[in-house]
Design brief:
Blueprint lengths: L2 E7 L5 E5 L4 H11 L2 E3 L2 E4 L5 H12 L3 E5 L4 E5 L7 E2 L1 H4 L9 H8 L1 E4 L13 H9 L3 E5 L2 E5 L7 E3 L5 H12 L4 E5 L5 H13 L2 E3 L5 E5 L4 E2 L2 E3 L4 H14 L2 E5 L9 H9 L2 E5 L2 E5 L8 E3 L11 H8 L4 E6 L8 H8 L3 E5 L2 E6 L4 E6 L3 H11 L3 E7 L11 H7 L3 E7 L1
Length: 424
């Protein structure tokens, strides 16, 4: 894989229109769900051309599905009727966390599944234990040997299930598993994210019997088969929020096509408004602008409809330019503050104590070399580069491309001075 870096020179207010890409966190489980269909081909539209989708396509093909991928048209055609290989190999599973979403489909289609690449860890690590426990409650047997999780179907049957935390991947996996499992399954404490509801809508169109999505308690009555259908992936609310932050940081004005439902942003939309970001909606189009100064903010991340943890790093970057002290409390991912050291290297004034961070603004950010330690850190450093004095070079930028399609090109079209560079 080539080394990718982004070079950004700030100082230009961004202006223009951007089409919000399809949601990564809806597209990946939908690709996995397509493997449940034994009749008809699945057509997925508005699929983002991102690295994680490419990896999901590769994994679907590996287990036997026939996949036509047209990234320029954001289109996937999937025939899941030919799935016949039960092994999810380490060379693919280790590349993207979304590989765990393939567990129920391969289990149900092949009667067993081997998930390689768990790294020799005990069950319960990597935050995947609820997937295994839920499948075991449905009657599957689960064992681990030498870093490979072996799951066998056995006599699957509906059962009452409970999630310790409302994980969206856990919710999606258990719904997919229950969709073709005989009997009734109830899942308590389910995730409420819009992407989960979008996946449920797809499964329902495929013939699944699902009730209660969005309530925290979902009931699934197993059916004998699912069919391929045509479906359009929802817009990516995280990218919509990131583009709104880009407009606010640079003092520009960006029109977001496909982001009309600001409810998908949850509390984050209200927090951006409190900071001085103006968000206006006209049908399926939204406009983000910052007419005056930025104000400091208090942020506590939470599951939807709370403040999305994925938007915490971009908003922290925005807070470095606010007049005053902002407070952040990260309750979802303890590694989310990886951004702090990188922003500090650019001149930000941030201190972290445990789950809490204090951002003192406004500070003048300076150019420098920083590292995209993860997807959200990387895109937030690009945002910082839009207002820094001097060049900001973001290395390890392949992390950004896991979740954003042609980010450099689309920001450049809005007026940003940004270049993608790579070494082979």
């Amino acid at each position: 894989m080539p080394d990718v870096r982004y070079r950004i020179r700030g100082g230009t207010p961004l202006q223009g229109t951007v089409v919000v890409q399809g949601a990564k966190n809806a597209a990946l489980p939908m690709i996995a769900a397509a493997l449940l269909a034994t009749t008809g081909r699945m057509v997925l539209r508005n699929v983002p051309a991102i690295a994680d989708v490419h990896r999901a396509v590769e994994l679907a093909r590996h287990v036997g599905a026939q996949v036509e991928y047209h990234p320029g048209d954001r289109l996937l055609v999937i025939d899941g009727s030919t799935v016949d290989k039960p092994v999810l190999p380490a060379e693919l599973t280790r590349q993207f966390r979304g590989s765990v979403l393939f567990l129920p489909a391969v289990l149900l289609r092949c009667g067993e599944v081997a998930y390689e690449g768990a790294g020799g860890c005990n069950l319960g690590t990597r935050g995947l234990d609820w997937h295994y426990r839920g499948l075991a409650r449905l009657g599957a047997s689960v064992e681990e040997h030498d870093g490979t999780i072996h799951i066998k179907g056995g006599d699957l049957h509906g059962a009452p299930l409970y999630l310790d935390t409302p994980s969206h991947t856990g919710t999606e996996n258990l719904i997919m598993a229950a969709a073709l499992t005989p009997g009734r399954t109830t899942i308590e404490n389910t995730a409420l994210e819009p992407e989960v509801l979008d996946v449920v809508a797809l499964l329902t169109a495929m013939g699944a019997h699902i009730q209660g999505a969005g309530t925290g308690r979902i009931t699934i009555d197993g059916v004998s088969e699912l069919r391929g259908v045509e479906y359009t992936v929802m817009p990516d609310r995280i990218e919509a929020g990131i583009m709104a932050v880009a407009a606010a940081l640079t003092g520009g004005r960006i029109t977001l096509v496909g982001a009309g439902v600001l409810d998908h942003l949850g509390i984050a939309a209200h927090k951006l408004e409190q900071m001085g970001v103006h968000l206006a909606v006209a049908g399926a189009v939204a406009t983000a602008a910052r007419p005056g100064e930025l104000h400091p903010i208090n942020v506590i991340t939470d599951t939807h409809p709370g403040f999305a943890t994925d938007l915490q790093p971009p908003v922290m970057t925005l807070a470095t330019q606010a007049q005053g002290v902002s407070y952040f409390h990260e309750r979802i991912h303890d590694a989310r503050y990886a951004l702090v050291g990188e922003l500090t290297a650019l001149g930000a004034d941030i201190t972290v104590t445990g789950e809490r961070a204090v951002v003192r603004g406004a500070t003048a950010l300076q150019g420098g070399h920083v590292t995209a330690q993860d997807l959200r850190t990387g895109v937030s450093l690009v945002l910082a580069g839009l207002v820094a004095a001097g060049d900001v070079v973001v290395t390890n930028a392949a992390m950004i491309e896991r979740g954003h399609s042609d980010l450099a090109g689309r920001l450049a079209a809005l007026g940003a001075e940004i270049h993608r560079e790579e070494d082979h």
